[in-house]
Amino acid sequence: MRYCFRTLKEDTDINEALQKLKGKARAEFIRNALRTYIQTQNIAAELAEIKETIQEIKDILQQKNPRTQDFLVQPESKNDSEPLGEELFNNIINQFLNM
């Protein structure tokens, strides 16, 4: 199958990265970037499931022994405004662009 897309004016970082590549190298780069994006989304979904399971375990422990609350307090995240999956994806793409 063949796909095509256009970048936007504000996609300067994407344009710079793609202009450095030619032909098959550009196509391979885009394919790998998309594959990495898909894998990142899968990892984010798995992490969400793990977080949910951990919360369920904490709830069960809390019900069993209310004194465990002190041990179950989660440390605050450095950046709660950005979802972990999106942060991970951005880091991976930046690594690709800096190759």
From TrEMBL:
Protein name: Uncharacterized protein
Organism: Thermoanaerobacter thermohydrosulfuricus
